[in-house]
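pasting for ref
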Amino acid sequence: MLVLNLCQRILFPMNPIYLTADRLFDGTGAATVLRPVVKIADGKIDSVAASLLPPATCAGDRLDFPGCTILPGLIDTHVHLLLTALDTNEAIIDETVKATDEELLKRGQSNARAALRSGLTTVRDCGGRGNIVQQLREQIRLGKVEGPDVIACGGPITTRTGHCHWLGLIADTHDQVRQAAERMLAEDADFLKVMATGGNMTASSDPMKAQYDPEALALIADIGRKAGKHAAAHVLSRSALPGVVAARYRTIEHCDWRVEEFRYEFDENLARRIIDQEQYVGLTLSGLARRAFLPQVSQWNIGPVKRLDMRFACERRMLDFGVRYTLHSDAGVRMTPIDRFDIGLRAAERELHLTPSEILTAVTRTPAEALGLADRGTLQAGKRADLIVVEGDPLRDLACLANVKAVMKGGAWVRA
């Protein structure tokens, strides 16, 4: 019967679809809807209601998912579709540098397909090589490749030996920074990304040092704003945080408050500015942060692992202070495959002491708000029909997110 209904949907796109399940989380923070009926028409949510009508009264296709939960499609605000998620940074960089553009595009296509089928209906790619991610984005838009909606920055702006310099968008001076930002806009980037500090992945960079002065950071953000684009800044220590906040970057990736190798200092005044300026921080739940579910990580005697307790305690303080946040995977970095976002979200529950409802909101409604995507993020009348169906109740056990039974993007079934 399911096959027949899907065929009918293809032949008669105006025919409404009615979905029912045991429960629904709509992303708004309201109470869970039990035995919901979701009506979908013309690619949008027409209505969400409790089940009051018998199946025979629904004029359209009706699909029931017993034992399941309907959720908004997940949004990951920080991924790298062209990276391989191997076990070491060196192996990932080596594979990326050696790959041809055609090979990287194929890798991106494979990752995009896996992402969508795992429940991600929108992703923001925070750094690839050249304009390959933009090419992938257009292939998906045209229906040539299966994948989530992709928001692309192209290449991240960085210094000659800075974090991710091996992706190729080098800018050391203010003039070069301007040129790099304008180049990405000319190559149809959706937003601008800068490496404001060094990163753990790139040995020649220093995460404790700012890679750009406040003037350069403001230049990038201003160029983006004038073009109607937002800007994102990679920040792995407090050295660059004041400049990034002053420049009003829309999102602060990682937002690390570290001032020394094993010392974090949360600044309430700086956090208040982040709140007042309606900026969002992106908290990273990549491989190392998944230590509770990747036993080998706890055995690693390296700084990023040894300071995890301090990092999470500082992030928890930031959340308690009221800073707006999203949760992201940084997929593509070591031990972080794009189709296992669920592990990162379970890590957020354990390490940041967030509730499942808070976590699900941080990967649906809040990222849609942060990225200006008013048409998605919640299951409400008029919103785009991006949704997933998972077996079980993720509001009780986030492990259910690994059991995706159906994915709908823009009213069209991807997986069912």
